[in-house]
UniProtKB/TrEMBL annotation, chains A, B:
<keyword id="KW-0456">Lyase</keyword>
<comment type="similarity">
    <text>Belongs to the pterin-4-alpha-carbinolamine dehydratase family.</text>
</comment>
<dbReference type="InterPro" id="IPR001533">
    <property type="entry name" value="Pterin_deHydtase"/>
</dbReference>
<dbReference type="InterPro" id="IPR036428">
    <property type="entry name" value="PCD_sf"/>
</dbReference>
<protein>
    <recommendedName>
        <fullName>Putative pterin-4-alpha-carbinolamine dehydratase</fullName>
        <ecNumber>4.2.1.96</ecNumber>
    </recommendedName>
</protein>
<dbReference type="Pfam" id="PF01329">
    <property type="entry name" value="Pterin_4a"/>
</dbReference>
<dbReference type="GO" id="GO:0008124">
    <property type="term" value="F:4-alpha-hydroxytetrahydrobiopterin dehydratase activity"/>
</dbReference>
Length: 97, 97
């Protein structure tokens, strides 16, 4: 696996509402109705992250979840980060993948 | 509910291994074996936090969970923070409460 080029990252982010590039990471802050909704999101994402063997950095404060995705092995953004971001979007807004 | 005095906080922290005061918060960084263990801890703590109606600020990176407890209503550390910290200790090291 290798890091995506800047152009590749930009293209992928066009389809990822609210996600932004921040250095070698992509980041998004999710707002939920309450703590239980926030934890439910984290749990759903956690199962996928574990299966993908690619894990987020994330911070929770009550109804807010700040997510940061990066790939330490390459020091950049890889397809794993994009896949995990897409899955998170799917969790909050289910649709055909 | 009112904030605990500095002396009260110091006394409580004597029984809370690894917890430290940081301004108006108490903080601890937990290290687990892996991501699943870290998420399991967060889930167990989350049920208690929700029941207590008092929620942590916390950040997870793979096997690490950084916890910060404070009480926004009083702008200080209250008995709720101490109770939640004690419960977290109980989760990682079950004993008679």
């Amino acid at each position: 696996m290798s890091s995506l080029s800047d152009k590749q990252v930009d293209m992928q982010l066009e389809d990822l509402t609210g996600w932004q590039r921040d250095g070698n990471s992509i980041v998004k802050t999710y707002h939920f109705s309450n703590f239980v909704e926030a934890m439910s999101f984290m749990n759903q994402a956690a199962f996928y992250a574990e299966a993908l063997e690619h894990h987020p950095e994330w911070k929770n404060i009550y109804n807010i979840v700040e997510v940061r995705l990066t790939t330490n092995d390459t020091g950049g953004i890889t397809s794993h980060d994009i896949r995990l971001a897409k899955r998170m979007e799917h969790i909050i807004q289910p649709k055909r993948l």
